[in-house]
Amino acid sequence: MNWPAQLIIVRHGQSAGNVARDAAHEAELDRIALTNRDADVPLSDLGREQAQALGAWFAELPASERPQVLLASPYLRAFQTAEHFRAAGGACDADEPICFDERLREKEFGILDGLTTSGVANVFPDQAEFRRLLGKFYHRPPGGESWCDVILRLRSVLDTISLHHRGQRVMIFTHQVVVLCLRYIIETLDEAAILAIDREGDVANCAITEYRFNPAAGTGGKLALARYNVTAPMKQQATPVTSAPDQIAGARG
């Protein structure tokens, strides 16, 4: 087996950026009212509650079904989600370290960072047109990344996981675009397929996307999708479910 036995991908809890983005859109502003850099945006109070609810849900499972390895984007909101999850007993080992991997970071938006959708059209109409023509999969704003760029770095993440964590239960704490791009790689999807999934709805905060190793699949076995965008842990803990689109801009995902 060259894969983990289980791979669980979690989008971070609701962040202060998600809240500020919603306020900016409601007020029809060009920019989101945030003064810190994207990497330093923390969880909101509700986001912390969501992460704790997720951890409490996993804590009720047998130790043999809880994650053995915790990997996180170094962005504060993802790391805080992992911390609250672990503190609530979600990991197999309460002392399991949370390992940062910068390749799991949010998509970089370059000059469009902090802009709402209408803000992009007003401030950078040429970029709004480029994105319309190229689509979000291929459009790379100056100083930023396309989805293809994110996919390129994620391929090496999966290589690292298969090398160091084969046969283990691995949980990743990351961002909306990363969740979708990991699906693209693991399921060998094409542009049309992954964008169709994206159009179905946003990945909810603290939602679970899970893969399990299927030894009968392919020639040597592979990861098979078990569930996508599942919010049952939050609902079971009576915690509100939230979601916000990735930043195209503006939503800090």
Which features does this protein show?
about 250 residues; alpha/beta; Rossmann fold; six-stranded mixed β-sheet; 9 helices; about 40% helix; globular
Layout of SSEs?
Elements: E1 6-11, H1 16-26, H2 45-59, E2 69-72, H3 76-87, E3 98-100, H4 117-123, H5 125-134, H6 147-164, E4 169-174, H7 176-186, H8 191-200, E5 208-214, E6 222-230, H9 232-236
Parallel strand pairs: 1-4, 2-3, 2-4
Antiparallel strand pairs: 1-5, 5-6
Helix pairs in contact: 2-3, 4-5, 6-7, 7-8
Explain this structure to me?
The chain is an alpha/beta fold and 253 residues long. The protein has a single domain, classed as Rossmann fold. It is built from 9 helices and 6 strands, in the order E-H-H-E-H-E-H-H-H-E-H-H-E-E-H. A 6-stranded mixed sheet has the order 3-2-4-1-5-6. It is globular, with a radius of gyration of 18 Å. The model is unreliable at 248-252 (pLDDT under 50).
Task: Name the shape in a single word.
Answer: globular
| Alpha plus pi helix count | 9
Q: What is the level-2 CATH architecture name?
A: 3-Layer(aba) Sandwich
Relevant CATH superfamily = Phosphoglycerate mutase-like
- Side by side, the strands of the main sheet go 3-2-4-1-5-6
Class by SSE composition: alpha/beta
The beta-strand count equals: 6
Count of separate structural domains: 1
- The run of helices and strands is EHHEHEHHHEHHEEH
Helix content: 25-40%
Low confidence ranges: 248-252
CATH fold name: Rossmann fold
Residue-averaged pLDDT, rounded? 92
Rounded radius of gyration (Å): 18 Å
Share in β-strands: 5-15%
